[in-house]
Amino acid sequence: MLDIALIAHDRKKEEMVNFAIAYEHVLKHHRLYATGTTGTRIMENTALSVHRFMSGPLGGDQQIGARVAENTMDLILFFRDPLMAQPHEPDIIALLRLCDVQGIPVATNVATGELLVKALERGDFAWRELVHKYKPGIEG
After folding, report:
1. Residue 78, domain CATH
2. Is residue 134 part of a domain?
3. What's the angle, vertex CA 46, arms to CA 88 and CA 68, rounded to 5?
């Protein structure tokens, strides 16, 4: 079971909900986290249980970023809106940077999201279990 974050900018929330509906059969086997409104919309439209952080502009991106910094988040699905300026852009860049530092797979659009979820379904993320097993300070 992996920890997966679901984040979507306002104009991408419907796309994220449709994605969650389409891949509910895969996502239901994992611990899901989301920023505020995105998590609410997913839970309203699926049977998925989602731990909700604050809204992105209010610090939700940073809360997820803290989990990434601790290497306890396994996959980020962050459907970004490249055509709309975001007031919390520095938080977004920081989150993506942390994903690069920790080697956390991140999808910023539905096409890459589908590739990663299909890999998840095939079991291609087993390497993340090793990360958790051998993480200093955590007994496996």
Report:
1. 3.40.50.1380
2. no
3. 40
Low-confidence ranges of the chain (pLDDT < 70): 85, 87-88, 130-140
Contact 27, 11 (CB under 8 A): no
Q: Which domain holds residue 76?
A: 3-122
Q: Of the listed 3, 61, 74, 91, which one is catalytic?
A: 61
Total domain count, the chain: 1
In a domain, 62, yes or no: yes
Residue 8 one-letter amino acid:
A
**Residue 38 labelled as part of a binding site:** yes
Q: Is 49 annotated as a binding residue?
A: no
pLDDT of residue 39: 96
Clarify whether 61 is annotated catalytic: yes
The dihedrals phi and psi of 134, each to the nearest 5 degrees, come to -105, 15
- The answer to the question of residue 129 being in a domain is no
29 is in an annotated binding site: no
